[in-house]
Amino acid sequence: MSQYNEKIPIPARLRWREIRVRIFPFLIFVLVAGVVMWLWRDRVEATTMIGRVVGKQAEVRSPQAGSLADMTVSAFDSVRAGDVIARLVTTDPQLMQAELAVVLAQIELIRLSRDPFVDQERNLLNYESMQVDLMENRARLGMARIHKQQALREYERLESMDERGLTAQEMLERAKTEYEALQEEVVVIEELVDRLQARLERFDLDKVRDRWDESDPLAAALKVHQRTLERIEAEMMPVTLRAPVSGQVAQVFKMSGEFVDQGDPILRIYAPQPDYIVGYIRHPLFVQPEPGMQVLVRRQGRERREAIMEIESVGVQMETVEQFTSLFPEQPFETIGLPVRIALNHDLDLRPGEVVDMRLMH
Fold this sequence. Notes:
CATH 2.40.50.100; 44% helix; Elongation Factor Tu (Ef-tu), domain 3; alpha+beta; 13 strands
């Protein structure tokens, strides 16, 4: 009888099948539930606010209509506040040449009208002659500078085309030679103008003071032409454009040689350091935000690092928030939120423009 009471051995194959059918599903359920709870707490926690990190940014715009020259920066270049980034030529070279030609003709007329027939007027005539020579060479200097600028633009244009294989090397060499010759001519005339100016300053005015009267027609004409030359020289000077902030050039809208109107954007600069965070609390507001309230700020990304910061100020008007649209795509209408400014600490090493998740700590 004892042999009838013995347990029938269960094969290991059947025991393994029992474990797979009854125990494995339970263990997998517990494991998946634990992972889901961890992910929910760490990554899918309800976001009541969203914000964007704000840093300094500036646009360089054209103060006047003109053409850009000597552009020294391009996209992703680093600049410091006050650095020269370009020059703006605000006058038409053809118009300046025409005005200078008129001044030269009038100066030549004055030169021919002088009559040095008496020796006692020689000092006065020498003084007048030096003034006429000075104004004439200043006008020639203006013409030479205009021709030099035109030659430089032509050389830069041909050089750019040569880099793409669109022009002959002979044309580029000819343009370079012409530019260098005009550059040398400008230097020579500048030296001549400086010498004439120095001679006039050393001239003994006591010998001509009695005869030199600014109410005299000749003296008045010389004074008018001198003022005209000063105006033309001032108009010929290009406007220097400088970087208003330190940072990196993000976008370049215009290049050297392009014409711009007054107010046209030329480039945009972003500062590398953030200043504060602008957060938006989704409408309807369940909690009224106040300055000094703490906010949990969390980076979007794999690590999900977080830090506690404080509200500095609260906006007075609801605004449409594009970032909320991606968070709540099921909402058929535009999402609005109340903007708040949040003081930034540097625990999270945030970048300007970065979007962060936030939650009020109340």
